[in-house]
Amino acid sequence: MSLYAECFKALAPEILIVSTALLMLLMDASLLRRRAIASRAALSAVIACLGCALAMAWLALVPCSAHVAMLAITPLTQWIKMPLLLLTMFAAALSWNQRFTRHVGEYFALLLLGASGLMLLVSSDNLLMIFLALELLSLSLYSLAAFDKGSLASSEAALKYLLFGGVSAAFTLFGISLIYGIAGDTQLDAIAAALAGHRPEPLFYVALVMTLVGFAFKLAAAPFHLWAPDVYEGAPTPVAAFIASGSKVASFFVLARLLLTAFQDGRGAVWPGEYLPGWAPVLATLAVLSMVAGNVAAIVQSNVKRLLACSAIAHAGYALLALLAAPAQALSPLLYYTITYAFTVLGAFAVVGVVEAGGRGSAMAQFGGLSRRAPVMSFCMLVFMLSLAGIPPTAGFLGKYYIFLALIQSGHYVLAVVATLYVAVAIYYYFKIVRSMFIREETVTAPLATTFGLRLALGVTGLLTLVIGIYPEPFLQLARTSLVR
Q: Which of 10, 187, 213, 342 is at a distance of 20 to 30 A from 37, taking alpha carbons?
């Protein structure tokens, strides 16, 4: 097979997504410009979903394993791209009946370009490619957050997101330059080989901290989380859902590859009674700070979108704990947790979007008596809240169980106990939403409008949250098979 044919085979899903984005811009600028905004949005959402479906079909039918330029295409990265594309389809479905912008083609094109950034990110095995993919994703998200030009909150959210993101990108780039100076290469395997068998020099720890600062921003891990509540509240709800779901999965995966591959000899230790400098103590600190800051801040929230943002900070802490387990046990629980969390939180944002459109806000009061207006949707929201709280038989319970089990097997008993205590705290604020929906009196009587795409997204995410929680073995087996191939 020629080099060009190999490149095309490896990058075909990304090419399909980018081609769909360009086709959408062309159609919206020519054929659809004179149609009503609702019609343009519906057709654009369908085209975006078809493009993602074609890319998923290619991934399923044409297995590929190759190293192309700065990308490593493996069964694992191919498998990770599937849920990322599915999350993008759901985000497009949530935008089916959007009314916040006239620039429909540009909106869906940016959504797909962000998805291509996610796909390139999980395939990257070079620090420069990781940075470029992160920036492609970030620039798309900054623009999407500002798309509601009639809302000052949207403009404020995008500006804060851009400023925080620019500073974090600078930290990441400085860290990468220092790592290149130490290792003499930017390939992850080459960095690992250069550091193997040598005690890391002090400059390595500076580079490590600077790189982790950039990733902590993307993950909304404390103390680099201050942007999250304002962005989640101010951005259009489908955009907030995409930020909370797809970007988290890809960022956690590439962070795991970076730490467990390139920096494996700089791990350090945070065992009870033992401390060695490295990235493990830094991650432990970030995880505990995130659990404390996220859960405490969520308790006092009266806006559901801000509550979900604060809970995302806490969930970033739980997910970071998975990386502290033994290297052979870290990746599987991390992937299970982040992917199931992504589908759950996207479903929760779908419900918030419906309530927001019908009641003109996302305050907790808008959910009063929702079960009497929309019983099926309220049941879906109940499932999502149970999963986020980690209550069986949902996927969120097993996600936390696998992480805590990996911590205990690795000897991190104190961290497992601390995490369990904050899970109990989280139950309180998630059930504030449940109580508002099922117990409080109905405060808003405006009709709730739903589209086919939104109902489909709600149904699939709710079903996945329950099915994976009750019968997780096929999902886990698929992940294990991808890990070992």
A: 342
Segment among 11-25, 346-360, 371-385 with least mean pLDDT: 346-360
Name the β-bridge partners of 276: 269
Q: Return the pLDDT at 2.
A: 65
In whole angstroms, how far apart are CA 47 and each of 52, 347, 375?
Answer: 9, 21, 31
Sign of CA dihedral 382, 446, 231, 81: positive
443 contact partners, CB below 8 Å, separation of at least 6: 365, 366, 368, 369
> Which amino acid type is present at position 461?
T
pLDDT of 268: 75
Q: What gap in Å lies between CA 249 and CA 464, rounded to an integer?
A: 16
58: nearest Cα among 90, 101, 107, 20? 20
DSSP state of 73: E
The listed range with the strongest mean pLDDT (63-77, 199-213, 331-345, 441-455) is 331-345
Q: What is the CA radius of gyration of the chain?
A: 22
CB atoms inside a 10 Å sphere around CB 34:
7
Own/partner contacts of 177-185, CB < 8 Å, gap of 24 or more, are: 178/203, 178/204, 178/206, 178/207, 178/210, 179/127, 179/204, 179/207, 179/211, 179/262, 180/127, 182/207
Which one has a higher pLDDT value, 72 or 445? 72
Give the pLDDT score at 483. Answer: 57
Least confident of 103-117, 176-190, 294-308, 439-453: 439-453
**Most trustworthy range by pLDDT among 46-55, 320-329, 451-460, 463-472:** 46-55
The structure tokens listed for 320 are: 């970071």
Strand partners, 123: none
Distance CA 320, CA 316 (A): 6
Whether omega before 392 lies within 30 degrees of 0, making that bond cis, reads no
Across-strand partners of 124? 71
Q: What are phi and psi of 201, to 5 degrees?
A: -80, 160
> Rounded to two decimals, what is the model's pTM?
0.92
